Every structure is written in C-alpha cells, then in structure tokens.
Amino acid sequence: MKYIFNITIILTSFTSTFAWVSDTIYVASWNVENLFDNIDDPDKNDEDFLESGNKNWTNERIFNKMKNLADVISFMNENKGPDILGLIEIEHKYLVEKLIVNFLPNRNYHVVGYDSPDARGIDNYLMYDEDIFELIEYNKIPIIFFDEEYTTRDILHVSLKYIDEIIDVFVNHWPSRRGGEERSNPRRINAASTLKRYVDSLSVDREINNFIIVGDFNDEPDNYSLNNILSAQKLNEYDGLLVNLSWEMYEEGIGTHLYNNEFNMLDQIIISNGFFDKAGIEYVDNSFKIVSDDFFIHTEGKKKGSIIPSFEGGKYIGGFADHLPVAARFFIVK
Question: Does an H or E element contain 249, and which?
Fold first, then answer.
C-alpha cells in the first residue's frame, strides 16, 4: 500500500470525456519542483518530504501542491491544457495519475515514465491526451558515469503517433550545478553525449525526424553541452538536425528560473529539422513561449516575473514551482 496517501478530495459533479479538436498541437515542459508523497521510500533520500521532515510535508500541502500545478496546466493552451506535457521532478508516476483524475478531468490524459536511479527519486514523466495521440512505445535512456559513483535521472523517450506521423518526445533533467561548474559540467556533457548518440541513431531509422526534446537541462543554450555536443542551433542559423527554440529569448535576457536575482534559461524546447520541411507536422513560427500569468508569478519587487515557489527561504509559502513552464505549437500542413 506504499503508493496511497490519505487525502479526501471532493470533486464537482462535472466531468467530460471527448475527443479534442484542434488545428495545432500544444507541447509544454515544466519542472514542477518536488512533487513528492509523504511516505518514506527507504531507497531514496526523501526524508525532507515526510510529515515529520523539515518540509512538514502534510497531506494538506500535497493537496495544495497538486491543485496549484493543475491550475497552471489548465491555464496553458488558452485554458484548454497542453496536448503533450513533459513533467520534471516527480517522485512517483501515481502522483501524476492522481493529479489527472482529481484535478484535470476535462482531458483524456495518460502518463508514462519510470522510476530512475536518481538518489532523491525525482523522475521524468510525459503526459499526453489519448484522444489525440496513439502511444507507440516508450523507454528510458540511462546516463552512465564510468569515472565516478554518481546517478541521475534517465532520459525518457516516448513515441506517439499523430495522424500518419510519429513524434518522438524526449524528457530530460540533466545533472544539477551543485558542487560548482567545474565539477558538474562534465556530467551534463555526458548527458548531452548520451542523448546525441541516441537521436542520431534514431534519425537513421525514422523516415521523418519529428523529434521534440524538452526539459530542465541545468545549462543554457550557449553552454558546451547544448551548443557544441548536442549541437542545438539557432533557428535562423541551423544546418544540422536540431534547433533550439529558446535561443532568441535567452539572448534577450529572458529565462525560466531566477537565481541570485538573474533569470536563467534552463528549460528549453529543442526540435528536429523534420518540423521545417513544409510537409506533415510543422513548427508554428514564433510560437515558443515561457508560460506566465499574474496568478502564479511575483508581480513586483526583486523577484518580479519569477514564479511563486512552494518554499521560499526555507519557509513554506504554498506556491507553485521554482521554474516557469515553456511551450511551443505545431500544425499539420494540409
């Protein structure tokens, strides 16, 4: 009974199940900042997120966290919710399933993903609307470190069929910068190399490369891991497989995560050249955005424009997350 926690949720009587009709596909990614249960997992360092832990992670706080996440998710895509959503920092799959059932009843969402070897147990998952996409397969891509005892999140790869084409989505959460840039940078380079080998191999097998790479990379577009190893290029300069849609905003000083009063563009969407071939599924020009609204961001002061987190300065303030979501749109050429 490990994955059951005692929260009583009263839902309104309204539910709706229907096939969603849209001219575009809305894809988003969000690091939701520690969606944990409050049950001790002896194999993970989750002690902070127990009722007796220093986060005082009660059922009430879990309920509030889920409701806040659902409010932002429902706000996306002009209040219709995303069609595909990569989720980062989730302790267990069942938490996303509860989020869907209890707070997102108006879409036929399904979630896939795995527990990973990350020491804290924060994993990557993908949520998608089953009325729009057919699940072909999903698997995990381990990031192996041969020269040190270190574990991190697996990369999640999900293949979805949309009409007659396959979309391959990769959800990432690369190693953090904890311990400093010099020590941590090789770990993210390792993650980039792992992903690069995989997508290059997959591009040989796919007739059309519809790759969407999302997540929290803990690096910015011009860092070596993304710019040189993964070779995720600027939209107006690309001549290879991958394009990083966040470059323009990054160069304007815009970002998703506030650290030391500076915004960092850690959360990105990278797509393949198959979305620019003027056939099948195409990227909607200038549709990449950082999802933001006054109801979940700081509207004044030094933190203006940043999202309101669950904890601030170690104190619980009942907010949303510590990263803003990112999103982009795609359409079918007719």
Answer: helix 247-251
